[in-house]
Design goal:
- It is built from six helices and three strands; from the N terminus they run E-E-E-H-H-H-H-H-H.
- The protein is of the alpha+beta class.
- It folds into two domains: 52 residues, Ubiquitin-like (UB roll); 64 residues, Orthogonal Bundle (434 Repressor (Amino-terminal Domain)).
- The protein is elongated and about 60 Å long.
- The N and C termini lie far apart (57 Å).
Length: 123
């Protein structure tokens, strides 16, 4: 096995996304092996590329919205009707939000009073 660099294809929401990667390559058979940290990085980079391609908020943009509103991840998840760890996975780049959730996050960011409305609905 020798270390190699290139672009690998990953499926994100049923779509192939090419992302840069460092991996081990067998010169005889062409088998590719990823170390755990390289696999994590590949997943995160592919999700970031997918978000950018589809005009979705980035992990940093989602974190900034939550921070600006003074909400922790669990509170924002509850207000949006999501599972407790969903926001954490989005912000860590482990999962990608749906278009609908992206629009809702933008509404929370852009429409005054939206958090108060969601608090009433979540109560």
């Amino acid at each position: 096995m020798r270390e190699a660099r290139g672009r690998l294809s990953l499926p994100i929401n049923g779509e192939k996304v090419l992302a840069p990667a460092t991996y081990l390559l067998c010169p005889r058979c062409g088998e590719i092996v990823l170390r755990a940290h390289e696999a994590r990085r590949l997943d995160e980079d592919a999700i970031a590329i997918y978000r950018k391609r589809h005009g979705l908020l980035s992990a940093d943009e989602m974190r900034a919205i939550r921070d600006r509103l003074g909400l922790n991840q669990a509170t924002l998840a509850r207000l949006l009707g999501l599972g407790a760890n969903t926001i954490s996975r989005w912000e860590a780049g482990r999962n990608v939000q749906s278009v609908a959730m992206d629009i809702l996050l933008r509404l929370v960011r852009d429409v005054p009073g939206s958090v108060a409305y969601l608090r009433k609905r979540a109560a």
